[in-house]
């Protein structure tokens, strides 16, 4: 396949490298950032163009791997008609392309792309505006990963929300725990086995079943003692929201 | 060492089995629950006693592995004077024993104990009321794990709070994500690589540095769109508390 890439951030770079490695031809790279764009085109041994209008019509797929907010601007200036136009966003609807291109779709890798990425086992969600584009996207994605899911924009948005919870918010909890411990000079690695065990359990039984701790057993004494240890009012709100919702899920489960 | 065990739940059972395997002699088991207590004493090939007053003075260490709320009751009826008296709670202060026994302490395994546990790499926190008991506790803990930390009650309580965040609350986020996806019939396993990657990163760089997502980049459009997808007011509160505190940490970091 002939692939052109718009963007030179982590997603653009890693997808570009993965597609090249899989044997595809990277036709051109465009980026607003001349430095990172130039660097990426060198890595991909391909041409770098500074204007969207310089992008060649003679390509099979154009990957728009830019920040969500910039996709609209790219679409506005992209004058190609033949190639399949694809964005890589988790939360942007496929309909952003509606009425602007004939063939379009989404290719969303479910991972925070930073540093070198091995796509082979990474889930990639695809969506096309018709059967043919969906099939082309599936084939393209399958050339870099074995883990392809066809998902509508509505479902992908729910997935993106869930991804924020299990990645951004859990990482945030790790950061808060790290800070609590560092103040008292307690090494954070004491918690590694606990953290890993929490994840390992997920694979054999649903998270709801694995829930432990003061909230699920309604241990108000410990909850109140923990709240006393938390100085930051925002963290107290966070602790309370978690505890109340854990309790709510537990009651719901008990009713079933 | 001669060890007696009070309790017959997960912690009592797993610690009892680990100490027996390490070559210690389990002298007696006491539990309010005759069924599970009897079963545990069979597993440990030792005597089961139904009353605390039947516990033998001729033992080196008495492990009180019961729920936090029950420790006080046990202490009230425990009339032993020679052995080292130890509880296994993460949040209960060592001072609960003050004035009641001569030698006492804490042995807290930092893990949710359920099913079979391999203690060998598990962090165990110990605290004794004097140098000698601390040293005995360290030695006992070292016989079942290589990962021993001496921690004061104050520090252990901070650790327990941090453990609730990284275990109970992250597991809760997994449960919420699982529910969001199951409503839309999206397989939860799509998120496994992302979940695992979040944990793997922790080992090479601090969580605060790894923070990604709409909150840290102040992407209000995505935040508001996510909030629209969340029906439950409690979950919306939880989402907002996380996002605000992620933003707060990011600003703090920028100031440094």
Describe the protein in words.
The structure is a homodimer of 256-residue chains. Chain A is 48% helix and 15% strand. Chain A has nine helices and eight strands. Chain A has helices spanning 10-21, 34-43, 68-77, 131-142, 153-183, 192-202, 207-210, 220-229, 233-255; strands at 2-6, 25-30, 47-49, 61-64, 84-87, 104-109, 123-128, 147-150. Chain A has an eight-stranded mixed sheet, with helices on one face. In chain A, helix 1 (10-21) links the parallel strand 1 and strand 2. The longest helix of chain A is centred in the middle third of the chain and has 31 residues, at 153-183. The termini of chain A are far apart. The mean pLDDT of chain A is 95. At the A-B interface, helix 5, helix 6, helix 7, helix 8 and helix 9 of A face helix 5, helix 6, helix 7, helix 8 and helix 9 of B.
Task: Report Rg of chain A.
Answer: 23 Å
Q: Which spans of chain A have pLDDT < 50 for at least 5 consecutive residues?
A: none
Chains forming the largest contact: A-B, 86 and 86 residues
Question: What order do the helices and strands of chain A follow?
Answer: EHEHEEHEEEHEHHHHH
Number of strands of chain A: 8
Total of helices of chain A: 9
Describe the main β-sheet of chain A briefly.
Answer: 8 strands, mixed
Strand content of chain A: 5-15%
Query: What coarse outline of chain A follows from CA principal-axis ratios?
Result: elongated
Q: What share of residues of chain A is helical?
A: 40-55%
Question: What is the oligomer described by this structure?
Answer: homodimer
Quick check: average pLDDT of chain A? 95
Q: Order of strands across the biggest sheet of chain A? A: 3-2-1-4-5-6-7-8
What is the end-to-end distance of chain A? 52 Å
Q: Pairing-aware structural class of the strands and helices of chain A?
A: alpha/beta
């Amino acid at each position: 396949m002939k692939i052109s890439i718009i963007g030179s951030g982590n997603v653009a770079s890693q997808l570009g490298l993965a597609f090249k490695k899989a044997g595809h031809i990277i036709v051109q790279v465009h980026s607003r950032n001349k430095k990172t764009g130039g660097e990426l085109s060198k890595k991909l041994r391909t041409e770098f163009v500074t204007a969207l209008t310089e992008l060649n019509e003679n390509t099979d797929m154009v990957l728009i791997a830019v920040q969500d907010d910039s996709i609209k601007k790219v679409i506005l200036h992209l004058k190609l008609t033949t190639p399949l136009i694809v964005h890589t966003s988790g939360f942007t609807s496929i309909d952003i392309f509606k009425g602007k291109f004939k063939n379009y779709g989404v290719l969303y890798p479910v991972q925070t792309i930073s540093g070198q990425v091995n796509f082979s086992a990474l889930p990639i969600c695809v969506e096309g505006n018709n059967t043919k584009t969906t099939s082309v996207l599936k084939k393209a994605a399958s050339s870099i990963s074995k883990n392809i899911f066809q998902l509508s924009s509505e479902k992908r948005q729910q997935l993106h929300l869930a991804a924020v919870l299990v990645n951004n918010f859990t990482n945030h909890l790790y950061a808060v725990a790290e800070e609590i411990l560092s103040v008292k000079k307690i090494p954070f690695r004491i918690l590694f086995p606990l953290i890993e065990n929490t994840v390992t359990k997920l694979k054999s039984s649903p998270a709801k079943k694995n829930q432990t701790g003061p909230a699920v057993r309604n241990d108000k004494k410990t909850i109140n003692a923990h709240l006393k240890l938390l100085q930051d009012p925002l963290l107290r709100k966070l602790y309370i929201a978690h505890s109340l919702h854990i309790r709510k899920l537990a009651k719901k489960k008990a009713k079933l």
